[in-house]
User: Fold this.
Amino acid sequence: FTTSSGIPLLIIQGTADEQIPPISTQLLATHLCSIGTNLERWMYPGMSHTGVIPVSTQDMLTWMNSIFNPKSILPPAWHPTGLSNVLDQNCSTPGGFTTPSP
Assistant:
């Protein structure tokens, strides 16, 4: 990837993913943010590659609704709630990938 598509991107992964190492999505997110992608990366602690699906489904649907339904905007402080301790990362500014403080 060399330029942003301008389309918001959501990466959902479990920290115990046995198929795709979490460092891979960390590197991808860092690169995509550096080219200006509007990206969020949600890491669900202890969840495997398939185990993350049931705990993240409602969060994903809420996020998708906010993207595709302009009347349904997420409040700025909205956080995924599928698990109480989801690591919610995003590109705070073009060119940077940040991890918010708890």
The mean pLDDT is 85. The helical segments are 22-34, 52-68. The longest strand covers residues 87-93.
